[in-house]
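Worked example 3 (structure in, sequence out).
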């Protein structure tokens, strides 16, 4: 928390007006206190000393004068080993663990670690002490199933750094320090196998954005023949209710020549989401 605090001055649906004393930034995360709960919110508008928060939970019980604390951080996701095979809600809470914590009727104000902190991962370094690195450079690799993660210099570390320490190959927790980087000013920056990145900030640490040239084989002959999809590109499936958009999406997800499938269920009917959650863990991966 930054120390910036405020008081609720208006409530309208999931929008809460807050008068604050201090510094507040757009897209900053704030917490509205309701009893013993802290409801996660995001700053979406600032007018003078009043800001509008979009609350990600039910706003029942929020009243004028309730306390608000601002974190100083943007809404972010945690990336690292342990993401694959997980089912998250919109705030990156693992739903199975959330159900264990709150039961089948989820409670508001519960926020869990996205990555399993008790799991060990086999880290293998690819740099050595004295090497010069910058954001996006690979420090080591970690296998997860058939996929190999690249443990990179966090994207928010601008400039060049010298590797002051790098761990030996071995098993480590996802938040264990696996390297230390020297910024040339006498500061050592610890680096773990995971880091957080704001969801509304585009990743910009790349040398060149490659133009899609190869097709992504979906194994659906109709699509591959008449509507080919570019590997690294995008495509959409328009259609009215009941036309089979979700079915075609699921067929593509099951059979396409890809390494990882990420499904974001936005506005999907509950039955289709339940079907996906039940069927996908039982599918056989042709590559493994």
């Amino acid at each position: 928390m930054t120390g910036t605090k405020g008081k609720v001055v208006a409530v309208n649906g999931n929008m809460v007006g807050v008068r604050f004393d201090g510094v507040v930034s757009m897209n900053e995360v704030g917490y509205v206190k309701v009893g013993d709960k802290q409801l996660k919110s995001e700053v979406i508008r600032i007018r003078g000393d009043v800001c509008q928060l979009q609350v990600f939970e039910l706003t029942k019980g929020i009243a004028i004068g309730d306390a608000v604390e601002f974190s100083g951080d943007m809404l972010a996701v945690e990336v690292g080993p342990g993401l694959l095979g997980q089912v998250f809600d919109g705030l990156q809470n693992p739903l199975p663990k959330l159900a264990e914590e709150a039961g089948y009727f989820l409670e508001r104000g519960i926020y869990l670690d996205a990555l399993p902190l008790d799991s060990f991962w086999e880290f293998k370094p690819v740099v050595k002490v004295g090497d010069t690195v910058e954001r996006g450079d690979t420090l080591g690799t970690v296998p997860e199933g058939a996929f190999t993660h690249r443990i990179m210099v966090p994207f928010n570390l601008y400039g060049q750094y010298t590797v002051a320490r790098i761990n030996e190959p071995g098993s480590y927790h996802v938040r264990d320090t696996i390297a230390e980087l020297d910024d040339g000013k006498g500061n050592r920056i610890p680096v773990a196998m995971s880091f957080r990145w704001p969801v509304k900030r585009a990743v910009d640490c790349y040398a060149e954005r490659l133009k899609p040239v190869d097709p992504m084989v979906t194994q659906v002959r109709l699509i591959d023949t008449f509507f080919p999809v570019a590997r690294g590109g995008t495509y959409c499936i328009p259609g009215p209710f009941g036309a089979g958009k979700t079915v075609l999406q699921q067929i593509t997800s099951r059979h396409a020549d890809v390494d990882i499938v990420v499904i974001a269920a936005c506005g999907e009917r509950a039955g289709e989401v339940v079907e996906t959650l039940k069927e996908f863990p039982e599918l056989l991966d042709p590559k493994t």
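Notes: The mean pLDDT is 90. The longest strand covers residues 37-47.
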